[in-house]
Amino acid sequence: MRKRTTIVPLLALLGLVLPAPATAQPNGTVTSGQARFQILSPTLIRSEFAGDRVFENQATYNVVNRTFPRTAYSTRTENGWLVITTSAMTLRYRVGSGPFRADNIELKTGSTTASPWRRVVCATGQLCEAEDQHREGMLVAADHAGHTGWGFVAGFSYVNNGVTATVRATSAGRHRVVVRYANGQGGDGKHENRTLGLSVDGQAPRQITLPRTANWDDWQQVATEVDLSAGEHRVSLTRGAGDSGNVNVDSLALLAAGQAYPTTRAVDDCRFGTSCEAENGVIGGPAKIADEHAGHAGTGFVAELRGGTLLTQRVSSVPAAGTYPVVLRYANGVGGDGKHEPRTVFLNGQAITLPTTANWATWATATAQVPLPAGTSDLNVTCPDSGCHVNLDTVGVNNSAQHIALGGYRRSLDGYTGTNGDPKLYPGLMYRDGWYALDDTSSALRNGTPRADRGAQPYQDGYVFGYGQDYKTALGDLATLTGGPKLLPRWAYGVWYSEYIDRTAADFRDRILPAFRQHGVPLDVLVVDTDFKGHNLWNGWRMDSSKFPDPQGFLDWAHGEGLHSTLNIHPSIQGDDPDFARAQATAKGKLAKGNCANCYLFDWGDPDQLRAYVELHSKMPTDFWWLDWCCDGSGSSLRGVTPDTWINEQYSKMGSFAFSRGFGSLQAGGYSGAGPLPTGPWAEKRTTLHFTGDTSSTWGVLKGTIGYTSAEGVSTGMSNISHDIGGHNDTTGLRGSEQYLDNGQLRYTTKMPDDMYARWVQLGAFQPITRLHSNHGDRLPWQYGPAAQASATKFLNLRERLVPYLYTLAEQANRTGVPMVRPAWLEHPGSPEAYSTVDSQFLLGQDVLVAPITTPGDVGETRVWFPPGSQWTDYFTGRVYQGGTWATVSAGWDTMPVFLRSGGILVERTNNVANDAKNPANELTVHVTAGAKGEFTLYEDKGKRTRIKQSGDVLTVQSPAFSKKKWTVVVHEADGSTRTVQGSGRPVISLRAPR
């Protein structure tokens, strides 16, 4: 006889407690019953709801610091609402109204009104989309047909992967929990019945079986019975240690006796005065949710509305009956009927004409005046029988502001070719309408321990950013809250040589480094790729003694030459590896077979397996490790911790920093398609140099790199971003300069066209990390023609000279959260051009504007926008451009469009050097523009700082070590000429031109 699960009505007593009045405390905390608000800064408020009134004060894995300077704020209760006001925003919460949702908490910042919290509660008989509920360690995917909503929860491929739905039983008694799932051939290669654990309100799970389905497009249902009290409950589907997982879950439903599986989706309200996502409404008829066109808000849009479509938004909090503007954001390209013409939709029966847009990636808005009753009602969008043939993105009710992401991130750019469409970026902190809610509910505590389970009690923990256009302050808040981007050792900002090709210690010592020195090219970091390994070139755990007979001696040699090195690691081990038995014993027999030939995987969330994994590194001396993912599948079962972030933190403890992909998990979407996890990208930057993966050597990828670096930086706070300079995979077939054996076959390396190589190295010189890399491809200057060689040599030496400046920007990023490479809108938020040029130019710090050439030819050109408020001087030619203007700038291979802001100060080494480690920066050149005012604080190792201040014709250098350095000043004149002034041995240097 099947046992029933009985849920104790824990909320019964709490229902008798009257809402407590709001109380302000001297530490910036305001408590209102089960809600607590901590005012951290004028632009940042923590919002926490605890049904059991037990608030969390410990640091979490994301949030490591809540100590901010004291912030002035006011608080009052008005018409039943708690109102908290700072100088930047107002947050309102309806007293005693329960957990945060669209209709009871409101943010106002500038001209924007928003509902920062969305909470979908699925009542008995409602469809509960899995993607709307809390997920643990899993991706929302949409790559199989037949799902409802905008996707499904994919995988359950690791222990503790799960989804938890909040349901509301409308009456007490027996219910069925019905799960809609697909069970095809899993990542483990098996096609069999699978199991998951089903738990209610944190009680011990019962195992449920999900029979196999025909394929991943075949969705079936499985049911189990539970006894529930009336009210809210938490229903969890989780892969436990004894479960097989490897299924996809589309939705679930809580059903009373006799109820059929529903089609009506549970949704949260669309609050009056806000802009709401169309895909979050109730969708009926043939319309589908899609995300394939760029520029949409939220997770997607409702795609090409057709006859019979019904989109319903439940509008709440309408203050009084009346007629209000409703704003539709839409795209109207060439429809499925082959026509490109104005289309008609109906809003509550009122016909609205939507003019054409240029294409499906171009979005426009249309406004209609719609009568609405007071309180809550439905807003319905319908189509004529002939169809609307438009995509609908958002619905704004008495609000025209659009919550459009600025920037975005990915775990990797693997597979990006520059010709197959732009990679989909996932939104982070920055939005054009100036607010963001960082939901930290799912994050573990700082030490990786999951938060305590609260049973049926609701709990929410999040941080509401209301920054308006003060984007830099938002980044500063994020850095204070979650930790700043790691400051790498200074040598890491020099020149890296990396190539996926078999190299030996003798190759590096006798051929490669001497060639760098012979050709006058600097080098700081040697990357030793995977072929150094013995036993197995992919996931071996000892250095091949025939290639590296003395591993420690190789590292000592590198240090003696002023170099640092890293070794490439893949996170699995062969069952016949000489170190496998010891690793399995240390792991207490828990290493599991992976979906690769005779390989075993690690669960880094298990202390024994983590210890076994770390110990494998002990026989391979290096400065830091390159964790290079692919297909292996190791991960972490820790709840509330992003697997990438967790293992990268362990690597940072083993070396100077982690060098890896980040933000996600191989289990959450695979090698190149990994999406974001609920824990978010917030902790990654504290330990990691982000390697963006294997792209292709095309002009399109070169161009795409420009916008991606700054997009990731501003959306996550990550500053240390490393691309393959030159791309990874060959696309041209041009024969290179070296031979190698591939399975006994003699092959040649490949190379890029000379113009592409020269331009890519130019761009790399101004990226956070300059790492020359390829897949068996030439990346060294002397492997190209004379002009390309001269160009690459020049720019790699410039990169090395700029290390003092770059190291200073990296230290600034660590303190302020503002990344080294940034979009112009970060400094010029009021200029529309700053947003439209993110894919063609960027700022390196606030003073240097870089607009790379990304087209073939001996001479290239690009259209440059010069930010207002200053003149901009071409670093190479001296030509001066007025701020607030556009110009077409051309450049041969010996120059590129790089500009210094008037009042900006650029510091570089005076002379070319072979590396940073062996060459203290004792001779420095300062670039300034004549007559300007500005200052710059140069950061050096061990916290030393030199303040450089220009006031017209006087430059002042304030440094304890001033006398130990030789200072040269290059003065850029308004006529394009330059003057060089030698420091006089005194802290005050006259820049006055001789008469």
TrEMBL record:
Residues 1-24 form the signal peptide. Gene3D superfamilies: Galactose-binding domain-like, Glycosidases, Golgi alpha-mannosidase II. GO terms for molecular function: carbohydrate binding; hydrolase activity, hydrolyzing O-glycosyl compounds. Pfam families: CBM_6, Glyco_hydro_31_2nd, Glyco_hydro_31_3rd. InterPro entries: CBM6, Galactose-bd-like_sf, GH, Glyco_hydro_31_C, Glyco_hydro_31_TIM, Glyco_hydro_b, Glycosyl_Hydrolase_31. Keywords: Glycosidase, Hydrolase, Signal. CDD domains: CBM35_Lmo2446-like (cd04083). The keyword Signal applies. Residues 126-255, 274-398 form the CBM6 domain. GO terms for biological process: carbohydrate metabolic process. Belongs to the glycosyl hydrolase 31 family. This is Carbohydrate binding module (Family 35). It comes from Lentzea albida.
